[in-house]
């Protein structure tokens, strides 16, 4: 496919430009066309081009939990566009695209990939897996013992472009034995226990990775409800624990607020309106927090305790999703600058859904391409 040899052929750079605008599942299939196409689509130029295009069209990723025929927990992955809703409209209907299904009940997300617990030989032994939820491709990781309280967090280092999985291995052990870690993309995969962290009392929230740092919330002293944030630097594998007394007995949802850690809660104010109260960590070293309060406009589709905050888009809109999975299922976009609340009905989910987790600003990335595929 050399233009010098055939003047009628399509230039390779034009082919790559066209393919960079397609869904990742379609591009994945083109890897099988020929060795030349696989080489083209695996080159660094195309991977970065595709990432640039995907970053300009982020999506909502839906992790839909249900119970299968054999009473096993299943994760079904769907996605939809993040529509820019005209402000003269109050609602919109969007169809979700189905991608793949895995048998599991736990998952963790970072930078386009999902880590979840696969089956082991016993209830304690787990075979962690990492997958691309859009293509269904996955890789099995070395087995590890994970007791019932154990939790895993997926983190991404944007400088070295490495994923790491951190497991709180023995929740109540000494700091020297508390965690194990696995680095993806190295010649020999293996769990390490050569990291040390301060003593704390277990997770209270799912981990969130922002700019190479994983954050999760825990309770410093249960009797007094004092919260702290555990920070794990993915690149240097270092821990820091900072105070978060601003949450004041309310367990917040951790979100990415314009590249900073945000903790947000929802309540009714004195007027009976829904109020979002958010604290943003502006300086980790100085442990400086700022508070923001937003009152949502009235909307018949949303009520207190019917929703959870999924995150914030790069456009600066808060995304809220329904807790109740009965149809119809809505996500809500709240623009704090315009004080506008818009609802989007999501259609296309399978029946018998037990819960739906919504992930904001999902970007497809071919820098991490797995050979194996789910059935």
From TrEMBL:
InterPro entries per record: F-box-assoc_dom_typ3, F-box-assoc_interact_dom, F-box-like_dom_sf, F-box_dom
Domain of life according to the entry: Eukaryota
Domain (F-box): residue spans on this chain: 10-48
Protein name as annotated: F-box domain-containing protein
